[in-house]
Amino acid sequence: MLSPLTTGIYTGLGAVGAVGLAWGGCAYAALWPGSQVFGPTMTAPRKPGELALTFDDGPNPAWTPRLLDLLASYDARATFFLIGSRAKVETRLVRRIVEGGHLIGNHTWSHPNLALTAAGRVREELKRTQEILEQTAGVPVRFFRPPFGARRPAVLKIARELGLTTVLWNAMTSDWKEPSAARIAGRISQTIDGLERRGLAANIVLHDGNHLERRGNRGPSVDAAGRLLARYKDSHRFVTVDAWEPAVRQPLAGGSH
Length: 257
Ligand SMILES: [Zn+2]
Description:
The chain has about 260 residues and is of the alpha/beta class. The chain is built from ten helices and seven strands. It has helices at about 5-10, 15-20, 25-30, 65-75, 85-90, 90-100, 120-135, 155-160, 180-195, 220-230, and strands at about 50-60, 80, 105, 145, 165, 200-205, 235-240. Helix 4 packs parallel to helix 10 and helix 7 (about 120-135) packs parallel to helix 8 (about 155-160). The longest helix has 19 residues, at about 120-135. It is globular and about 45 Å long. The structure holds zinc ion. Zinc ion (ZN) binds next to strand 1.
């Protein structure tokens, strides 16, 4: 039987009938973070007071180290969804993320739109990233976030077969193109406070990396993270997304699997 917590995070295929699979339904299902039409994904549980800061598209040698210093200054842990091809050339930075107590997840090798990618290549994107992250960091990688939130049933099935839980989000703004940290933090705070009123935790996406540019400027996003940490440090708990996953974590035997 599912616990109330589990049913809060995961919703099964029950939405199929309500949404329908007309063309518009497919676009909704493939891109909208809350959509469960294509199978269960994790967003956030009914745990008001918990915030998961998640950072996508790194590691970024210009900005991830500053972000790690910032998180350490608040003694806060975050989740980093890393691009495999970047992780391959930033191995020390990947290890530094893990040594800081943060959780790393799989964000594909080359950041394609997986809703438009052939199944064989989807598998390759995930598997290759899984291998480089686990070999580099020496920890199991159990979480996956699809680039752009784009997915379809085959993608979720492949992720499951590789032992990955697909994680989406419920708090986001266009931080990748917004130059004002105050506006990024302000919009996300509004979302957090709205979720709180509905009894939900917040799964917040920011970007410390740029999938098009290895050292892309992420000053506003990192600054916004600092504003959120300052605003919520006394009233909320910053968690990594594995805190919302009931599965038991096992250390890796022999470095990778
Ligand atoms: Zn991304």
